[in-house]
Design brief:
500 residues, mainly alpha
Length: 500
């Protein structure tokens, strides 16, 4: 191990320790990259930091981050989630465990209209928790359903995390979006099966909504569904549909989504100056945190690689005498464990670039083992990481979803919320295993979309009638040049002019 590699390893260890004791991640990465980098590389580190910053600023894809976050906060201000929850509650009221189902279905649909988590958990806690407490629902199961359902927004598109992950893995965000639908709906389905099964086995855990509180008028139910569900589905179709159909880039679609959310807020008469100001401020703060971390982690990664430490780590891990599947499982377990103390931006932007070369070196072996096309292997791996990252919101001690819920539901203790989340962490681990060993769940939709795009045939149109009339002088000049070229070629031909 050379001196530069040793310095790089020391930088990595100090970085992990500094983050563990609570020092802000972005400033830690920048300070360590410049200080340790100067020690190993000299003045070159400042030029490297400059060019990495400029390169990141030119990444047009990152412009979608603030727009999707703004879209999420506006949809919250517009009260779309409340209307969605109310519509599903009316329809599913007679079923056992109906409130559990309503929470998960509302979360899955609302996740497709926003790429943020905190707002979903908070709004669900405000709307669902009082009704669940009043109806006699189990506190642990209710807390687990709200926190687990609210975190679906980090996985189901338009997830901000997937936008940030795309450049890290070198894959299209549109492919990542299409690959995330299968695992996202799989996870929501596992939640639903578990909650409904528990409610039917033990009706006390999730009784139906009392008859006196049900709405029986079909017209009222239909009106609530039309007003509460259809506009949101139109917004989702315009945003995600344009990306998956190849009609718009994620950046363009984020602009469509932000505008559509504003229009819905105006139509529902929920757009106020105070609400708009709060949405802008919240979106700015969240976006600034993510983008600053993107820049500083890019500098840290470039310095880490320039020292040679990244290649050394890759070679050391690949050279271990273990099968590729075992190494992949080891990487996923490390990401899972990192989700306990760290949030997703730190893992995606700091640690994933370290693991990426290892997984990329194993691509031929793993593609053959799992039957995945090599060009979709990193897309599948990205969806696998995204499912794993869901656990970061449910795993202590960080577990931000627990604190979001505790702020709005004082009746439930933090211990009760943690116990409820643990059950759903087990379900998430099952989903990780399913996506790993049944990769078609993630790769089916990207393959289908690519096949559809390739099947589109472009017709050749005869546009000779639309061409401008050719200049006769220019045509004569071109003909004269062709004759001169033919004459030169004849002179050079040995059969025409043999040497004496």
């Amino acid at each position: 191990m050379s001196a530069d590699i040793a310095i790089g390893m020391a930088m990595l260890i100090v970085m992990i320790g500094a983050i563990f004791i609570g020092i802000p991640i972005s400033f830690t990465l920048l300070f360590l990259a410049l200080s340790f980098g100067y020690l190993a590389l000299g003045d070159v580190v400042f030029n490297l930091a400059y060019f990495q910053t400029i390169g990141m600023m030119k990444e047009e894809l990152l412009a979608a981050v603030p727009l999707f976050i703004f879209m999420g906060f506006i949809t919250e201000q517009a009260g779309l989630m409340e209307r969605l929850f109310s519509a599903f509650r009316m329809v599913l009221a007679p079923i056992r465990g109906s409130l559990y189902i309503v929470v998960i279905v509302t979360s899955a649909v609302f996740a497709m209209a926003t790429g943020i988590v905190g707002a979903a958990v908070t709004v669900l806690g405000i709307m669902a928790a009082p009704i669940m407490i009043k109806t006699g629902y189990d506190a642990k199961l209710s807390a687990g359903a709200i926190t687990a359902g609210g975190t679906l927004g980090i996985l189901i598109p338009p997830s901000v995390m997937l936008i940030v992950m795309g450049p890290v893995l070198g894959v299209s965000v549109a492919d990542l979006y299409s690959a995330a639908f299968g695992p996202g709906f799989l996870l929501a389905g596992i939640y639903l099966v578990y909650l409904v099964a528990r409610s039917f086995i033990n009706p006390k855990l999730g009784p139906p909504v009392p008859k006196e509180e049900r709405v029986t008028d079909i017209v009222v139910i239909a009106k609530e569904v039309v007003i509460g569900v259809l506009p949101l589905l139109l917004l989702i179709t315009a945003t995600l549909g344009s990306i998956l159909a190849g009609l718009a880039t994620p950046t363009e679609a984020s602009g469509i989504g932000a505008l559509g959310a504003l229009i819905l807020a105006v139509v529902y008469r929920r757009l106020t100056y105070a609400g708009l100001k709060q949405a802008v401020v919240s979106a700015t703060l969240t976006s600034s945190m993510v983008l600053l971390l993107a820049v500083t982690s890019n500098i840290f990664g470039a310095v880490f690689a320039r020292m040679g430490t990244a290649n050394w780590v890759t070679d050391a891990m690949v050279s271990l005498p273990v099968p590729g599947i075992v190494m992949l499982a080891f990487v996923i377990v490390l990401i899972f464990l990192l989700g306990w103390p760290f949030e997703w931006p730190a893992i995606i932007l700091v640690f994933l670039p370290i693991f990426y070369p290892v997984v990329d070196a194993l691509r031929p072996e793993l593609s053959k083992s799992f039957g995945i096309p090599e060009d979709l292997f990193m897309v599948w791996f990205g969806s696998l990481v995204a499912v794993t990252m869901q656990t970061a919101y449910l795993s202590p001690p960080v577990a931000m979803s627990a604190y979001y819920l505790k702020q709005v539901v004082k009746e439930w203790s933090l211990l009760t919320i943690y116990k409820g989340m643990f059950e759903f962490m087990v379900l998430q681990c099952i989903a990780i295993a399913v996506v790993m060993f049944v990769p078609s769940i993630a790769t089916y939709l990207p393959e289908a979309l690519r096949a559809d795009q390739q099947s589109i045939k472009t017709e050749e149109v005869d546009d000779s009638a639309n061409r401008l009339e050719e200049d006769p002088l220019k045509a004569g000049q071109e003909q004269q040049e062709e004759e001169e070229q033919q004459g030169d070629s004849l002179e050079k031909d040995p059969l025409v002019n043999p040497k004496k």
